[in-house]
Amino acid sequence: MTDLLTPFEYDYMLKAILVSGLIGGVCAFLSCFITLKGWSLMGDALSHAVVPGVSLAWIVGLPFSVGAFIAGILAALTMGWVKKKSGLREDAVIGVVFTSWFALGLLLLSLYPSHLNLKTIIFGNILAISDPDILQVLIIAGISIIVLTMKWRDLLLYCFDEAHARAIGLNTSFLHFLLLALLSATAVAALQTVGACLVVAMLVTPGATAYLLTDRFGKMLIISTVTGALCGVCGAYASYFINGSTGGCIVVLQTLVFLLVLFLAPKHGILSLRKLRRQTTQTMPQSRIEKSGCAS
Questions:
Q1: Is the pLDDT of residue 77 over 90?
Q2: Rounded to 5 degrees, what are φ and ψ at 43?
Q3: How many structural domains does the chain have?
Q4: Taking the CB of residue 274, how many other CB atoms lie within 10 A of it?
Q5: Of 49, 136, 185, 291, which is most buried by a Cβ count within 10 Å?
């Protein structure tokens, strides 16, 4: 029993567990809107597109979070401009832009070496997070939660039916930019935890899990946030004992929860759907018999 409490004796583990839970919860809250809007690829794109911003921030002497956030916004605007001018499908535009920006970031890091480890940017290093970085995460998380709490109804309508939102007078352009800004800010905060490669999992998996468990968006927000926070805490805690990547543990745990829900969800799970089809198949012949009897 004493061994199970060992991680809590180390300050770096306490910081990692708490920050992972916080980031997991914030990403999960936002993931409901991402899932509903169908922006999974956008989250992946922005998480990679912030890399050149990190590089440029180091070169000019700015905090890397500022550069990463600006790069994320510029990348999103670039995707919108290319899509509008080229007429290409959104997935093709996202693929071209995010790979280009990611490659630019790698090039800048190779030309202007810094104290920032490329492996840390790509895979994260929550165990080495500093107090200033924790403060940065707290600020980003706090602002994101406040904005989402205040505007969640407008964002819900925008994500569910943009045309209807525009028809009733909502400023959909502002909501579009707001969602992009929140997505970029959250991706920057999550870089410390799981890195650029795994941010998209934290931004999509909890929302997808909650989507299978309920048809009400309010409940979806609660389920997703709790799932993301618990997976963040438990994943960071488990990484101590298996001596594995903290970000990898968090994302694998989220995936296991998703697979469990995918099969066992009461209404939308695979096993439940099979059971429903089986019951439907068994009752159909009986209904035909009753109809033929009535006809005679």
A1: no
A2: -65, -40
A3: 2
A4: 11
A5: 49
| Distance separating the N- and C-terminal Cα atoms of the chain | 73
pLDDT for 293: 39
Q: Tell me: do 134 and 245 sit in the same domain.
A: yes
Q: How far apart are CA 212 and CA 224, in angstroms?
A: 11
pLDDT at residue 285 is higher than 80: no
- Rounded CA separation 42/33 (Å): 12
User: What residues contact 17, with CB distance under 8 A and at least 6 apart?
Assistant: 7, 8, 233, 236, 237
Cβ atoms within 10 Å of 146's Cβ, excluding its own: 10
- Residue 22's region, left for phi above 0, alpha for psi from -120 to 50, else beta, is alpha
Task: Decide which of 144 and 196 is more confident.
Answer: 144
Look at the block and give the residue holding tokens 């099979």.
Answer: 274
Work out the number of other CB atoms within 10 angstroms of the CB of residue 270: 13
Identify whether residues 153 and 168 lie together within a single domain.
yes
Q: What's the token pair of residue 112? A: 């202007």
209-268 per-position pLDDT tens digit? 999 999 888 899 999 999 999 999 999 999 888 888 888 899 999 999 999 999 988 887
pTM above 0.90, yes or no: no
Q: Domain range for residue 111?
A: 3-265
- CA nearest neighbour of 12 among 99, 131, 145: 131
- Dihedral sign, Cα of residue 196, residue 58, residue 80, residue 37: positive
